[in-house]
Specification:
The chain is globular. The protein has helices at about 5-10, 30-45, 65-90, 110-125, 140, 145-150, 180, 190-195, 215-225, 245-255, 270-285, and strands at about 20-25, 45-55, 105-110, 125-130, 155-160, 170-175, 200-205, 235-240, 260-265, 290-295. By secondary structure, the protein is an alpha/beta fold. Strands 3-2-1-4-5-10-9-6-7-8 form a ten-stranded mixed sheet, sandwiched between helices. The two termini are about 20 Å apart. Belongs to the universal stress protein A family. It comes from Sporocytophaga myxococcoides.
Length: about 300
């Protein structure tokens, strides 16, 4: 395969933001996710689909059908009112080109995880943006909708904490394992990065006994020259025997605005390790996390 063909192949998965799926449970975390959805939609002329799932109280199953119908109608009216309000707020914003943001909502009697997967399958979003507030309790996070969506949905997923300070994305950091193989995933970020005029830093954590930074930089420079047409991208090697700590140190040094992590589908032990890294950053920090799936 020629270098030209490989370049085209790498760029087929560019994150071109035309449709953003925004699940909401009307929480503070969901409001922060909405702010990011607006921010990204403004830069990319994207439309936003707001999704909500509702369930009735457990005791409702013992009620008469007529009472159940009334309860469902009341819940639908309340949720629709909130969703319409969210759509109006989103539509009050304009893209950088002056176009009013487009927004629609979907609501269903369903489990949140199921509804998100159904809407994603129907709308084919380029990005899903979700809020999370479960970072204080690992078990709570493992039971959360966010955790289950990470494991079951293959669309790019941006996770926003309720305490995240929403700001334009100027510095994007992406954790990679292999300089020449994983750097290919960076090509997906070019459209997002360019819309914010953001820099991309690929973070490569290496243990002390495997330091050969000059070789890594040479391979990276050759790769960039041949396959990625974006000037504001660089490689940073982090020396640490602990991947999580190495990444945290680098992110703190560089004042990152967005961390990109790759979720791999491979041997269960490797997959378990990567899940733990992803969950550690989601649970312990306020930095937005963009998860890309790779088979």
């Amino acid at each position: 395969m020629s270098k030209f063909c490989r370049r085209i192949h790498f760029y087929t998965n560019l994150l071109i933001m035309k449709t953003i799926l925004l699940p909401t449970d009307f929480s503070k975390a969901s409001e922060k996710a909405m702010e990011y959805a607006i921010l990204i939609a403004q830069r990319n002329n994207a439309r936003i689909v707001v999704a909500h799932a509702y369930l009735l109280p457990v005791f409702s199953s013992i009620l008469a059908p007529s009472v159940m119908d009334c309860m469902i109608e009341e819940v639908v009216q309340k949720t629709d009112s909130k969703l319409i309000s969210i759509c109006k707020k989103i539509s009050s914003h304009f893209s950088d080109s002056g176009k009013q943001l487009e927004c629609e909502y979907v609501s269903a009697y369903s489990v949140p995880e199921t509804e998100i997967k159904n809407v994603a399958h129907l709308k084919k979003p380029d990005l899903i943006i979700m809020g999370t507030n479960s970072r204080d309790n690992l078990q709570a996070f493992l039971r959360s909708t966010t955790s289950r969506i990470i494991d079951t949905v293959s669309f790019p997923l941006l996770i926003v904490h309720e305490n995240t300070i929403v700001a334009p994305i100027e510095k994007i950091h992406m954790a990679i394992e292999n300089i020449t193989k994983d750097a290919v995933e960076a090509s997906q970020l070019i459209n997002l990065a360019s819309s914010f005029k953001a820099s991309i830093t690929l973070l490569h954590v290496k243990p002390n006994n495997k330091v050969n930074e000059s070789k890594g930089n040479f391979l990276f420079a050759d790769f960039i020259k041949n396959f990625i047409d974006y000037s504001s991208i660089k490689l940073k090697t982090c020396i640490s025997n602990n991947v999580e700590e190495g990444l945290k140190t680098s992110l703190s040094e560089d004042s990152s605005d967005l961390l990109v992590l790759i979720k791999y589908s491979r041997k269960w032990l490797d997959e378990l390790f990567h899940k733990s890294i992803i969950r550690a950053f989601i649970k312990k920090g306020d930095l937005p996390i963009l998860i890309l799936h790779r088979t």
